[in-house]
Write a structure and sequence with these properties.
The protein is of the alpha+beta class. The chain contains 5 helices and 13 strands. Strands 1, 5, 6, 7, 8, 9, 10, 11, 12 and 13 form a 10-stranded mixed beta sheet that branches. Strand 6 and strand 7 form a beta hairpin. The radius of gyration is 22 Å and the shape is elongated.
């Protein structure tokens, strides 16, 4: 469940269990705007500057949800019509001992519960001779925007294996995964975003996959921050370049809170809170590409 949405729900109606604002989107935005007095926002346009990233270092815990007699709107948007075990109709209710609404089989002899949990996105920040490999998306959301190769993790694979597979699928590149780099939680959309540091591996080539329009190696100063697809990617690349410049690699974790109704990377509509990082350089065993490896792939390079 979205912790951000919980806080917004409580703001709409105070202590009332069933908030009913005249315009929920406006009410949600009002709550989000009120929080701006306590949080600094991150704009991807400012990513190339020397200004520090907007973040909150104090962990924010969600307030307990007030008991309700009806399921909240976020639950009603989740669809589970029939039981996958016995085929009976699914109903919404709170199982005994739980505070959350669940989809429960109406057959008392079955009682199957269909849980909806966050999805995990995995991918790689691929570097080659000081440049970053990006892909321009051929699919929605954010068709035509640039991103790092990443996608949903599959069953029966590790996060690192999934990150390497997504890179192979989206940019036709083989990579050596070097180390975990960042883990961003995005409660509002129910995703956990995990990126690894990686470098091109033999044969050191790349080209657009079926989900990409274009692939290119970008010099750090030329990364198109105003055309990046996702807030998670904008934050990751900003931190990556900061760490690369300092020569000290860190593992980052934090929560990205997004303004309701905003796009995936709209300027000034998201902020990073609960940011934590730990130095990992001394734990890594990285190897450089073999001398003479080409800096150009099938997709060309961009300077």
């Amino acid at each position: 469940m979205s912790l951000s949405m919980l806080r917004h729900t409580q703001c709409w109606g105070g202590t009332h269990p069933h908030p009913k604002p005249q315009n929920k989107l406006l009410a949600n935005k009002a709550q989000f705007s009120a929080s701006k007095s306590q949080q600094r926002f991150y704009s991807p346009q400012a990513a190339s500057s020397d200004a520090p990233l907007a973040s909150s270092s104090t962990i924010t815990l969600p307030e307990p949800m007030a008991p309700t007699e009806e399921p909240p709107a976020r639950f009603q948007r989740l669809k589970s019509n029939f039981c996958r075990m016995c085929g009976s109709k699914m109903i919404g209710r709170k199982p005994e001992g739980e505070r959350e609404w669940r989809h429960v089989c109406s057959n008392s002899n079955c009682g199957y519960i269909d849980y909806f949990n966050p999805r995990m996105v995995v991918g790689c920040i691929v570097e080659h001779h000081g440049k970053i490999l990006l892909a321009r998306r051929a699919i929605e959301p954010c068709r035509g925007k640039w991103t790092v190769p990443a996608g949903y993790m599959e069953l029966h694979e590790s996060t690192a294996e999934g990150a390497a597979r997504e890179t192979r699928e989206e940019v036709n590149a083989e990579v050596q995964v070097l180390a975990p780099y960042c883990h961003w939680d995005i409660p509002m959309i129910g995703q956990a975003y995990i990126l690894f540091r990686a470098q091109l591996a033999h044969p050191y080539t790349f080209s657009p996959g079926s989900e990409s329009l274009e692939t290119a190696l970008f010099d750090p100063k030329d990364i198109p921050y105003d055309s990046l697809a996702f807030s998670s990617v904008a934050l990751s690349l900003k931190y990556y370049l900061e760490d690369a410049a300092s020569g000290k690699w860190r593992m980052h974790h934090g929560v990205i809170d997004k303004q309701p109704g905003s796009g995936p990377n709209d300027p000034g509509t998201f902020y990073l809170r609960d940011h934590m990082s730990v130095l990992t350089s001394h734990l890594e065993n990285t190897t450089a590409p073999p001398p003479g490896a080409s800096g150009k792939g099938n997709g060309g390079s961009r300077h």
